Amino acid sequence: MDALHAFTVGEAARHVREGTVTSVQLAEALLARIAKLDPTVGAYLSVDRDDVLRQARAADARRAKGETAPLLGVPIGVKDVLNVKGQPCTCGSQILAGYRAPYDATAIQRLREAGAVILGRLNMDEFAMGSSTENSSWQPTRNPWDTARVPGGSSGGSAAAVAADLALATLGTDTGGSIRQPAALCGCVGLKPTYGRISRYGLVAYASSLDQIGPLTKDVRDAALLLNAMAGPDPMDSTTLKAPPVDFTAALGRDLRGLKLGLPREYFIDGMDPEVERAVRDAVRQCEQLGATVVPVELPQTKYAIATYYIVATAEASANLARFDGVRYGLRVAGDDPIELYERTRAKGFGPEVKRRIILGTYVLSSGYYDAYYLRAQKVRSWIRAGFDEAFRRCDALLTPTSPTPAFRFGERTDDPLQMYLSDIFTVTVNLAGICGISVPCGFTGAGLPVGLQVIGPALGEETILRVAHAYEQSTDWHKRRPPLNNNG
Amino acid sequence: MAWQADIGLEVHVQLRTRSKMFCGCPNAFGAEPNTQVCPVCLGYPGALPVANEEAIRLTVRAGLLLDSTINLASKFDRKNYFYPDQAKNYQISQYDQPLCSGGHLDFEVDGAPARVRLTRIHLEEDVAKNMHFEAASGIDFNRGGTPLMEIVTEPDLHTPEQALAFLQALKQVMQYGEISDCNLEQGNIRCDINCSVRRAGDSALGTKIEIKNMNTFRGVFRALQHEIPRQIRELEKGRPIVQETRRWDDDASRTESMRSKEDAHDYRYFPEPDLPPVRLDAAVVEGWRASLPELPAARRARFVTALGLPEYDAGVLVADKEVADFFEATLKAGAPAKAASNWIMTELMARMSATSEAISALRVTPAALASLIQMIESRVINGTTAKDVLGIVLAEGGDPKVLVQQRGLAQVSDAGAIEAFVAQVIAANEKSVRDYQAGKPAAFEFLVGQVMKLSRGKANPQLAREGLKKQLG
Ligand SMILES: [Zn+2]
């Protein structure tokens, strides 16, 4: 038997089901590994050891009573942006210091129903604004493959924890690439489901029309298992889709014969890392070997995506973050009147990137500028959606790099917000169009940094992209490699 | 120099729904502060709104009753501003696609017909209530997030009297439509006033002043009584009106400046991304139209033409929907219209004004009143006894028929018994008998009174008169 921390979700669930491993054993193995390695990685903001063991004992009791549940006893880490009742939820921000969630997010509630044990809180860029987790106001998270480098972001803690075997799987959120980009940079699988596939109730909003919860896992099958547990309409979130529940693992295990995969020209740009390009092109050829037909497609809207994203997302954020005012919860810096209290609290509580985006979002919604920015961005957004519709008439899924570069060094992009924003150049379009995408490991650079292949599918096309990602993954062993950190663990 | 005022109102009406606009908390008045709250209406991180379908139905119903165009496609928007009574620091409202557009309300001012056109009706969430104490302030979020409908009129009103009559007529429609309880003490109806003046004959409206947060109809009336002359005085002194927002100080009887146009908020409206656009089904809306209630004016006309009530009675009954409903229920229980109307307008309404109770709070039911009236009609009791019985029912409750029986209050109509009372009275009142026989009619009335007194009010007065006439020859 492998070391317990090295299990996939599927393996761990099978062992618990068969009685060969208990949930408490899994929890203890992970807690021990977190205690040993997380001081180096910095993935977790907090771990409530007693609560984790209590949940694990409860899972073992359910198992003893003969209950079965797909994720029974499996510990899963959670990005610090999702409400878990009784636990902190700071969103990586000082402004939520001291706040404890009074309720469970729907996704958390569903994971609990599926038997999962909710593990600690994972680091992130403040309010999910960033691509390196350097915007966390608490601590840096290091890339397990090279601790001098960032894990990507904003779900950097979630990706690093999976890569370093500090969790069997984690939840992240993806507004412009925040699951897929760190998954690529840390060498794990990251799924951004279709907008509305998983309820956002309990996810602290950054950009409501773009945010989506998704899993970060060690393999594609685990992503399907977690999606199974969380997907489906929720009366608490009117933007959830009414799609009937399906078993996403049923689509796995088939080759790619009969599938047409599109290669969008605009996603292979000048200036992208040549090693990344080579790894992705190799992966495309591998897919052809597996039976897929690869066709060139055009997505001319792509070059407008970053600008559109930073208008739509910041506009929504400027309103979403208005509630953090020091009146009802979190940080409060006293003032002589309410306005002064707001100003002082927000000045102290928000970091520079969050302030930058609130100012930008406030500006684009202001009287006199609304039409030129917000309204125009909405029109471009519709056009981007139409571009994907057109592409998906010609193919079943698209293959692209997830990120133009592998993991970069700390501080390398912090002084240049625009350079940082370009990290998401291949991922934001998927959020703007409300469709789905998955990043799967597709190789390593000469320096040993992971590279991710992105498979993009149409709305509710998760079965297709999981099938493609799974077939590719199973024909390689990239996903089985572990960072050097593990050797001394 | 003659001046004309132009007044438009923005009337906020709290809807009668069971739950709040975007969450499941109860929409009820009077609970302990901050007991009817949840993560959604407290604006907790991660909570999401879900639109209350009943509130949408009631708003459309208001639009149908006011002849608005119902917009099958509408949406919610965020209105952004920081204020402690707002949990999210934005209010979910409707900006450019309200549920209802246009419409009008016909009403009367001192018997003369008037019409006010509506601009729009939209739906939003109410804010919380700020409370100020000696050393600190508190916020009660029970009201925060309750459904609030805003009715915006065109500047078609010209006098304080018209504004008052419009508000009263609008309140009647809201009550008739069971859209709102319209309880002013509980803040169910509040409004903002837009008021300008111009020289008679000028085609363009004057510069508009907004007076915010009016909680009573009387306040609207008084504010306009002072604001219109104030604006005229300013203009006559050659000082132009500058657009601004004012507040009404009722104690000082004057409006005072709150903020100028330069300080006006930029609300940065944008579509609420947490809620899908509202799409109404035309057939469903037509179904709602088919189930609209009769409005006060139509009901009043029906009371006059179909039931034969005098205009005055019909007007009094219809003014309060509950009273008119009580009246019709009394008829349904078997009472004739005029008698029912008389009893309600005198005895019951006297009681209501004495105790400030709604008619539904009285202990008498329409069935009880009908049975009381029927006992008079069939001469089981006389009017005097009936008033006593009603008094008992109002005080203690109970079935009038049972009361009459138990307390032996039934009228004496037995010919033998009445003859005996009459004989006794004639024997004891020789002088009055002589006076009557000498042609003094007042003496006869005295003798009737004596018979009633002897019977302790139970003698059938008609039979008593007949008996006296017979025995006195
Ligand atoms: Zn609530």
Give structural notes.
Chain A has 489 residues and is α/β, with parallel strands linked by helices. Helix content of chain A is 38%, strand content 12%. Chain A has helices at residues 9-18, 23-41, 49-64, 106-113, 156-163, 180-186, 220-230, 274-289, 305-320, 338-349, 352-365, 371-394, 417-421, 428-433, 462-474; strands at 44-46, 75-79, 117-122, 169-173, 189-192, 213-217, 260-264, 293-297, 397-401, 436-444, 450-457. Chain A is globular and about 65 Å long. The two termini of chain A are 16 Å apart. The mean pLDDT of chain A is 96. Chain B is an alpha+beta fold and 473 residues long. Chain B has 3 domains: 3-285, no CATH class; 294-406, no CATH class; 415-472, Arc Repressor Mutant, subunit A (Orthogonal Bundle). Chain B is 40% helix and 20% strand. Chain B contains 15 helices and 17 strands. The longest helix of chain B is centred in the middle third of the chain and has 20 residues, at 217-236. The model of chain B has no long low-confidence stretch (mean pLDDT 92). Classes of the chains: A alpha/beta (489), B alpha+beta (473).
Q: Give the helices and strands of chain A as they follow along the chain.
A: HHEHEHEHEHEEHEHEHHHHEHHEEH
Work out the strand percent of chain A: 5-15%
The number of distinct helices of chain B, counting runs of at least 4 residues, comes to 15
Which ions and ligands are bound to the chains?
A: zinc ion
CATH architecture tag of the largest domain in chain A: Alpha-Beta Complex
Radius of gyration of chain B over all CA atoms, rounded: 30 Å
Average per-residue pLDDT of chain A, rounded, comes to 96
| 3D shape of chain A | globular
Distance between the termini of chain A: 16 Å
Roughly what percent helix of chain A? Answer: 25-40%
The largest sheet of chain A, given as strand count, sense and whether it forms a barrel, is: 11 strands, mixed
Radius of gyration of chain A: 21 Å
Quick one: biggest sheet of chain B? 10 strands, mixed
- Pick out the low-confidence regions of chain B: none
Number of helices of chain A: 15
The CATH superfamily of the largest domain in chain A is identified as Amidase signature (AS) domain
Shape of chain B: elongated
| Biggest contact | A-B, 44 and 29 residues
